[in-house]
TrEMBL record:
Alphabetical keyword list: ATP-binding, Kinase, Membrane, Nucleotide-binding, Serine/threonine-protein kinase, Transferase, Transmembrane, Transmembrane helix
Ranges where the PASTA domain occurs: 375-440, 516-579, 580-646
Keyword Kinase attributed: yes
UniProt-recorded Gene Ontology molecular function terms: ATP binding; protein serine/threonine kinase activity
The Protein kinase domain, residue ranges: 18-274
Coiled coil: none
One Pfam family cited in the UniProt record for this chain: PASTA
EC number: 2.7.11.1
GO biological process assignments: negative regulation of fatty acid biosynthetic process
Protein name: non-specific serine/threonine protein kinase
UniProt-listed InterPro entries: Kinase-like_dom_sf, PASTA_dom, Prot_kinase_dom, Ser/Thr_kinase_AS
């Protein structure tokens, strides 16, 4: 019952070539249909962007990006893309088609996998991912929903809708892309992804395959993101004691918080897995039977975008046949057997479901089935970021009641739906009540006084409140000790929170930290002053020269910052250098009475040299000459030689 007769796409001819047969899956960005390529006479999967997204250039760019990224890859473990185009107002993507299930379906049926099964799937995924990394492509949305298990055992990676070039490490101001459960710490904190971000997601998937659980859970996406950014993924053997130590090490290596500590790309991790496989996998049975080998090549299942809901695959069939019973049984011994067993259960469930419908129709009970029975159950749609009014209307169209609740959210703007209870995708009976949790914005917090704390203490105080540290600036300050916080500001709006204040969980605080005072280099030689400032990573440049009675010639009188404002590492200081004391011009005292001339020079600070006998007959004398002569500039306290006139003519 995967396709609905009311779907207008079923039966339509797209671009004069692709005849749509039935619907396979539906996601948030596009719907996937089974179609026939009339030109080449083969079955294909065709992905068609939702009509309401057709005018959004961002979504169109992502859609085209998927085609280009996948088309650059030719590998047996990557879904092949055949064509991409536009038919009227529809953007579409044509991919190879092969019936099968996803790794998510497999985990839903069996809970967890054996170490050997995990390594089989991991080897195939790494092989395909290594080809992508070699081609310069980062997937950015690896998760079990995007790993396809064909009925014949082949394994492929699909959905390159978020793929980017390996060197495109720009952050984005939009919400984080990808699924939160598999996002690497650098994507959470900085919005930056490279090949090592794919490795982290694959490490989380490996943990989930081995244990049947994700390492981090929480009621809100921000809680899970916080754990990715701040916690260390536990060893899988802490949950399942039989998991080999070698696989523990592989998971911890792939999920290291520091990208530098992870494998640099999928090829490095694949090589390590192949070596590890020889240690972990038991020897082949003597009977000649061997574990399933992952086969290269072949067709692949088509997939929709993130959070895709399979409309005719394993989850629906398993729900009819009874997933709980299957999950309690021991998993089969190989990946292929595991896949085929789940596929058979799906077909068995399909025929049982069909039989129920036929019997109900024959008994005249069809109305009951669709009105009150199992057929009345409907999946809760994805309503995140919708207005409460729009979400209520959408639920009403499905025959569901809406109730309003509230919660804090750091990812969804206030006033929009941030989550639902039950979660989106959950099937509920018509008439059920779904609670729409409306975002109140981020959780309010109160920051403590940060000024005067060490940078480490301030960081700890902020992060304990589940806020973060944004930019950290350093500057010289004469009043605050080295290493202490001078000021703090909210990154959101720049408001000062040095003395504490209101803020929001998940937001960043910018700090300014003191480098201590700038050294005083007055009286030092230019060379010594330059070296002292260089120790503080400040640049000295020679400035003006001035006279100074207190600083010796050639030494620094003072150092001033070249630029106005706070002084930071790398700034320049101008050195004012002493020329020594300012010279004094000898006045003209020739012809003055002897004692008067002496007094003029003495008042100017000069020392005098003359025949002391002149003082005895001073009233009879006047100044005849000076040496140096009048008008000469000499240093202060210089000695002036006086010669008196001859009183006797």
């Amino acid at each position: 019952m995967s396709d609905t007769p009311a779907d207008p796409m079923v039966g339509r001819l797209i671009d004069g070539r692709y005849q749509v047969r039935s619907r396979i899956a539906r996601g948030g960005m596009a719907t996937v249909y089974l179609a026939t390529d009339l030109r080449l006479e083969r079955r294909v999967a065709i992905k068609i962007m939702h009509g309401h997204l057709a005018d959004d250039n961002t979504f169109k760019a992502r859609f085209v990006q998927e085609a280009r990224s996948a088309a650059r890859l030719a590998h047996p473990n990557v879904v092949n893309v055949y064509d991409q185009g536009q038919d009227a107002d529809m953007a579409y993507l044509v991919m190879e088609y092969l019936p099968g299930i996803t790794l998510r379906d497999l985990l839903k049926d069996y809970g967890r996998l054996t170490s050997e099964q995990t390594m089989d799937i991991l080897e195939a995924v790494l092989a395909g991912l290594a080809a992508a990394h070699k081609a310069g492509i980062v997937h950015r949305d690896l998760k079990p929903e995007n790993v396809l298990l064909a009925d014949d055992g082949r394994i492929k990676i699909g959905d390159f809708g978020l793929a980017r070039a390996v060197n495109n490490n720009t952050a984005t101001g939009q919400a984080l892309l990808g699924t939160i459960a598999y996002l690497s710490p650098e994507l959470v904190t900085r919005g930056i992804a490279d090949a090592r971000s794919d490795i982290y997601a694959l490490g989380i998937m490996t943990y989930e395959m081995l244990t049947g659980e994700q390492p981090y859970v929480g009621e809100a996406p921000m809680q899970i993101a916080y754990q990715h950014a701040n916690d260390t993924v536990p060893q899988p053997s802490a949950r399942v004691a039989t998991i080999p130590h070698e696989l523990d090490e592989l998971v911890l290596w792939a999920t290291a918080r520091d990208p530098e500590q992870r494998p640099r790309d999928a090829r490095v991790m694949l090589d390590q897995l192949l070596d590890l496989d020889k240690l972990v996998r038991p020897a082949p049975p003597v009977s000649g039977q061997s574990a399933t080998m992952v086969m290269p090549g072949g067709l692949s299942a088509a997939v929709a975008d993130a959070d895709t809901q399979i409309l005719g695959g394993a989850p629906l069939a398993a729900a009819v046949a009874g997933v709980a019973t299957a999950a309690a049984t021991e998993p089969p011994a190989s990946t292929t057997l595991l896949t085929n067993t789940a596929r058979r259960r799906r077909h068995r469930g399909y025929w049982l479901f069909t039989l129920v419908l036929m019997l109900a129709a024959l008994a005249g009970g069809t109305g009951w089935f669709f009105g009150n029975g199992p057929g009345s159950e409907v999946p809760i749609p994805a309503l995140t970021s919708s207005s409460p009014e729009a979400a209520t209307a959408q639920l009403s169209e499905l025959g569901l009641e809406a109730a309003l609740g509230t919660e804090f959210s750091g990812t969804v703007p206030a006033g929009l739906v941030s989550s639902t209870n039950p979660d989106s995708g959950t099937r509920v009976a018509k008439g059920s009540t779904v609670t729409l949790r409306v975002s109140q914005g981020p959780q309010p917090i109160v920051l403590p006084v940060l000024a005067g704390l060490t940078a480490e203490a301030a960081t700890s105080a902020v992060t304990e409140l589940k806020a973060g540290i944004g930019a950290t600036d350093s500057m010289f300050d004469d009043t605050v000790e080295t290493g202490l916080v001078i000021s703090a500001a909210r990154e959101l709006d720049g408001a000062d929170v040095s003395q504490g204040g209101d803020y929001f969980e998940g937001m960043n605080v910018n700090l300014v930290v003191s480098l201590g005072p700038v050294p005083d280099v007055s009286g030092e030689s230019v060379e010594d002053a330059t070296a002292i400032l260089a120790e503080k990573e400040l640049l000295a440049v020679t400035g003006d020269e001035v006279f100074s009675d207190s600083i010796g010639e050639g030494n620094v009188v003072r150092a001033d910052p070249v630029n106005e404002g706070p002084v930071r590492v790398g700034d320049s200081y101008s050195l004012t250098v002493s020329r020594g004391p300012e010279p004094i011009v000898i006045p003209n005292i020739v012809g003055m009475p002897w004692n008067q001339g002496k007094q003029v020079l003495t008042d100017l600070g000069f020392k005098l040299s003359y025949n002391l006998g002149a003082d005895a007959i001073a009233p009879l004398l006047s100044v005849a000459s000076t040496d140096p002569v009048a008008g000469t500039a000499v240093p202060p306290k210089s000695t002036i030689t006086l010669k008196p006139t001859n009183p006797f003519g």
